[in-house]
Amino acid sequence: xxxxxxxxxxRPVGATLLETADRAPGWRRYAPALIxxxxxxxxxxxxxxxxxGRHLERQRLAFERRVTxxxxxxxxxxxxxxxxxxxxxxxxxxxxxxxxxxxxxxxAGALERYPGIYALEWLPLVSATERDAxxxxxxxxxxxxxxxxxxxxxxxxxRAADRPxxxxxxxxxxxxxxxxGFDVASEPERLAPAERAALSGETVASPRIxxxxxxxxxxxxxxxxxxxxxxxxLDQPEGRRTALRGVAAEVFRVAPMVERALRTIxxxxxxxxxxxxxxxxxxxxxxESHRETSVNRVGGDxxxxxxxxxxxxxxxxxxxxxxxxxxxxxxxxxxxxxxGSLLSLLLASGLAVSRVIxxxxxxxxxxxxxGQYTLTEKLGEGAMGVVYKARHAMLRRPxxxxxxxxxxxxxxxxxxxxxxxxxxxxxxxxxxxxIYDYGRxxxxxxxxxxxxxxxxxxxxxxxTYGPLPAGRVVWLxxxxxGALSEAHEAGLIHRDIKPGNLMVCLQGGxxxxxxxxxxxxxxxxxxxxxxxxxxxxxxxxxxxxxPEAIRSPDSVDARSDLYSLGAVGYFLLTGGPVFExxxxxxxxxxxxxxxxxxxxxxAELPVPDSLEAVIxxxxxxxxAQRFQSARRLAEAxxxxxxxxxxxxxxRRWWELHxxxxxREALPALDETS
Length: 673
Hints:
CATH topology of the largest domain: Transferase(Phosphotransferase), domain 1
Distance between the termini: 50 Å
Radius of gyration: 33 Å
Largest sheet: 6 strands, antiparallel
Number of helices: 21
Strand content: 15-25%
Shape: flat
């Protein structure tokens, strides 16, 4: 921003000095200017180096936090195929004989959910005397010409030679006629990871492999997990060898699994390389997000960071670097150098100080103020107003300000907004967002100040990190019940309970603390305030709306909130809403008439029967068949037979996934841990 031109006839100080210098004889007339310019330039350059160094350090710290977040997401995402594999032994332990059809049915869901999984396989340990029977059984299953095969070394598959034991690919989903029957025991390098799994009793991963049909830049991994006979002693390797029934195997492409794990993570400007540190040189690269800007191909100002993590029995690492040009020295540093050089050239160091002070003063005056609050950052905008982060002039505590300018959305919406703050301010439950202050400005803007919560919504939590264990779901829902119980007893109905309006944070030394947000659609029971909503107006979010809120929105009561809370619990357990469709009308129809699929049939993690019964009761179409109060629902949740979600477990989760928020919220605990 340039300064306004002087019009008062006052001459600049620099011009007077230069004219005085002009009267000096010879080179001396330029000496003061040259010396002052040199000193000013030196100071400006020193300031440039200091500011750019600080800017680069901030960029480095922010980049390391991003890499930590990326690695956390990768660990969770890559654990998914391993957990799928680890579920296979349960199928074989449940039955002495598992048919090909049973194997196909058991694996179908996982293959549909995770397209990055190339194949799930069963490799039984077959003795020489059992070979003929196994081959005959496979042919009876419809595999014409099935036999145990081995590779001659030139790609040709022939009948496997006689040997004491075989480890053939006997079941494979999806099936591959070429691979079915291949005896892994015929090739030592393929047999090695399977043997390690069998003798250790642990999941073992292979080095990278390349599937014939894939591009040379796409690598896959084979993972093995042993299956033993029931009731066999497994405390020693020899006992495990004797009890071995076979090996469950899984082959997955690395790239699709990495991309799925990072689908909600911002990787803009970051080049990622996933390495297998356990592999020999030349065989370590598993995935490159941008080959042209990978670690060995970059130059200039580039930030690099590496984090390691365990995958099965191997040590993997993520090496990340910024794209060329993504890291800079900062606009401020360059501006200081340019302005300082210019001011030094004009011999106006005094004017430079005044310009800096003036600019800062203008910036302070330009800051948007609202009474005693200074708005510092826009946090979000919705149908019921705009939310800013703010700072109180005296208290200096972080605050959230929600405001609605008069005329936006009409008088009805303005009156509803005003009613929201009046009703919410009456609530004192710790799991309800706290209202500090409210009022109107001279310009007719209605606002209220509430506590600023540095946390994540349940929607973001599940979308980013996947479905939650049953114990954690119960812990979170019970807290929400507490807030709703107080509101319902005060005659208030939320009407928009959904994962986006439930935030989990760290507060008062408690980890995984729930806050119920946005009473923007709140309804007071009885006749009060009925004129503020037009009859028949549907309010809420269709994915979590009760049948009566769709059919007769004017007659909803507290049990409608409990239906929505049950739908939230369903989402936390399964990772998806109760009903799904691209059409809002179809979603509403399903809420009205369709019965939900039990969450245990959709969840990746175990769902205890008692918790499933509570969730499904909340989702009854008839309000009379649901829990009749939030307090009763809380008691039912407390009685569920689920593993307890402890503060220690919660703290470990936040240390892994949200370490920055944990350090800010619990500094004293971090110093002593």
